[in-house]
Design goal:
The protein is an alpha+beta fold and about 100 residues long. The chain is built from three helices and four strands, in the order βαβββαα. It has a four-stranded mixed β-sheet with strand order 1-4-3-2, with no helix packed on it. The two termini are about 25 Å apart.
Length: about 100
């Protein structure tokens, strides 16, 4: 695995910009809990997080498996089975595909 020179930002899902939250949902249509990674923070603690990479940053979104499942359960963009709804997926795909064309 190559080390990227992009800056890494450790944050919580709630603190992310709503646009980033939507992009993360698009990349994780079946929820977050199966995609969590573990890393050691600067204090030597093992932290679990969801890794999300943009053109200019790598986000490590801190969450436990339980928190990941709770976010999905509380989010209307996901159905009762924990999958991104077709409506949400189509809305976000349309929104972010347009952004990609502007680059």
């Amino acid at each position: 695995m190559s080390q990227s020179s992009k800056p890494r930002l450790i944050t919580s899902f709630e603190k992310l910009d709503p646009n980033l939250q939507e992009q993360i949902k698009l990349e994780n249509p079946e929820g977050f809990s199966e995609n969590l990674i573990k890393f050691t923070n600067k204090d030597g603690d093992i932290v679990s997080a969801l890794r999300f990479e943009t053109e200019d940053k790598i986000y490590l979104v801190k969450m436990s498996k339980i928190t990941a499942e709770q976010i999905i359960e509380d989010d209307d963009d996901y159905d009762d089975d924990g999958n991104l709804t077709d409506e949400a997926r189509e809305e976000y795909e349309d929104k972010y595909e347009e952004d990609d064309l502007d680059d």
